Amino acid sequence: MEPHVYVPRLLTDAAMREVRKIGLPVVVGGEDPPERAALLRDAAGAAAVVCTLTERIDAEFLDAAGPQLKVVANTAVGYDNIDVAAATERGVRVTNTPGVLDGATADLTMGLILATARRVLDGDRLLRERKPWVWGPRMLLGLDVSAGTTLGIVGYGRIGRAVAKRARAFDMKIVATPSRSAPPDDDVEFLELPELLERSDVVTLHCPLTERTRHLIDAAALRRMKPTAILINTARGGIVDEDALVEALRSGTIAAAGLDVFEDEPRVDPRLLELPNTVLTPHLGSAGVATRERMCRLSVANAAAVLAGEEPPTPVN
Ligand code: GLV
Ligand code: GLV
């Protein structure tokens, strides 16, 4: 049987047309993630897999696919869903989609900062209750964002820098954890995490999820933050110890959180849903029309390049 290209979840229409141009048979899943058994079955015999962050690509998957598999192209910048070492051992290239979603993710980050600080959802809920209300000098006061408020950026890479660019326009002071990859910016003060947590009014996470960053924000880290501080996470849920976060939000250790990602997606801890001081979105960081198009096309281009014996545009291994 001729090897195929396996696309477990429908990409954008334009990207699906690009997949078909590769010239191999194409096996396509639907809108929703396939069940594990279907994933393993449809991967069998594939030369390329163009997947998303909801597919767990581990040794079992790679063995189910078989030795003709050449590339796993993740349609995401984060690739914590992929066991890269297992892929490398088997000679399988892994690619991701860096660079094309920095602006979109930074935009949503600013949205969560503003919505959380200025209590947009509290205001929305108040109106929807259809009770009488009137402007008041003490009503729904929140954190002033553009008052020299300090923004702490954990992970000063491409997305972290895109957030800094936006924060400058809001007159925020910017502190960030030291980064090996990013050139230093004159107006950014680089601090180790404990000091960053102590100094920031808003802490926003932009590091990848790795063994080193899992539960980076735990109970002890949350205790270092100001009681008036806000935590924003548009990176990966596992960077935050969610149990500790719920406790910190309940007890007033920190003031509020804006979360686009969760530890056990798609499950959202019901305790987070019940807290009044959270703003929650369902992993929408890169969910802009043009951004998604660029991600999907880059992902397909990566797979096509490897199948053509070329170096992919954005390799991981
Ligand atoms: C989305 O979460 C991504 O990693 O691109
Ligand atoms: C508020 O609406 C103001 O005019 O200050």
What does this structure look like?
With 317 residues, the chain is α/β, with parallel strands linked by helices. The protein has 2 domains: 4-100 and 290-307, Rossmann fold (3-Layer(aba) Sandwich); 102-280, NAD(P)-binding Rossmann-like Domain (Rossmann fold). The protein contains 12 helices and 12 strands. The protein has helices spanning 13-21, 36-43, 59-65, 84-89, 102-117, 120-128, 158-169, 193-199, 219-224, 242-251, 270-274, 289-307; strands at residues 4-9, 26-30, 46-51, 71-74, 93-95, 150-154, 173-176, 188-190, 202-205, 230-233, 256-259, 278-280. The strands form 2 sheets. The protein has a 7-stranded parallel β-sheet with strand order 8-7-6-9-10-11-12, sandwiched between helices. Strand 6 (150-154), helix 7 and strand 7 (173-176) form a beta-alpha-beta unit. Helix 5 (102-117) crosses helix 7 (158-169). The longest helix has 19 residues, at 289-307. Residues 53, 76-78, 101, 285-286 line the site of one glyoxylic acid.
Short account of what is shown:
This protein has 317 residues and is an alpha/beta fold.
